[in-house]
Amino acid sequence: QVTLVESGGGLVQAGDSLRLSCAASGRTFSSYAMGWFRQAPGKEREFVAAIGWTGRSTYYAASANGRFSISRDNAKNTVYLQMNSMKPEDTAVYYCAASRGGLGSEHAGDYDYWGQGTQVTVSS
Q1: CA distance 7 to 9
Q2: pLDDT 10s digits, 59-106
Q3: DSSP per residue over 43-89, as a string?
Q4: When comparing pLDDT for 18 and 30, which is higher?
Q5: Which DSSP symbol is given to 21?
Q6: Which of 29, 92, 109, 113 is such that its CA lies 20 to 30 A from the CA of 103?
Q7: Tell me, what DSSP letter sits at residue 112?
Q8: Which residues are CB-neighbours of 95 under 8 A, at least 6 positions away?
């Protein structure tokens, strides 16, 4: 069992940066791939970024590529999402998720555990 708790969301202006954190419980965190997803009002949940269990493999949605960076610290059981050059269309609830798959995936169905989400709002 893995419990995920996101933090770091808030209200920022367009062009600003924000770093989200996701703290995981459990001693097997380092064996899970981790992902970030987001859901804007009235829209489906969408993939943002993922990282494999070693941290060496990362994947990004086209909307995030070049602006966002995912990383993990297995010693701290934490995964991060650094968001730069933010845009109003980045406004959403951001969720982290854990997958036993280990390598990372853009598909929500591949993830076994989800956090409760953190709100990110970008004003223009």
Answers
A1: 6
A2: 999 999 999 999 999 999 999 999 999 999 999 999 999 999 778 899
A3: S--EEEEEE-TTSS-EEE-TTTTTTEEEEEETTTTEEEEEE-S--GG
A4: 18
A5: E
A6: 92
A7: -
A8: 6, 36, 37, 38, 39, 45, 114, 115, 116, 117
CA 112-73-26 angle, 5° bins: 45
* CA–CA gap between residue 37 and residue 35 (Å, rounded): 7
One-letter amino acid identity for 93? Answer: V
Q: Which of 66, 92, 87, 67 is nearest to 6 (CA)?
A: 92
pLDDT at 107 over 80: yes
**Nearest Cα to 81, choosing from 122, 119, 34, 36?**
36
pLDDT of 103 reads 83
Give the dihedral sign, CA 64/66/67/70.
positive
Residue 118 one-letter amino acid: T
Cα separation, 32 vs 42, in Å, equals 30
Report pLDDT for 20.
98
The count of residues in the chain is 124
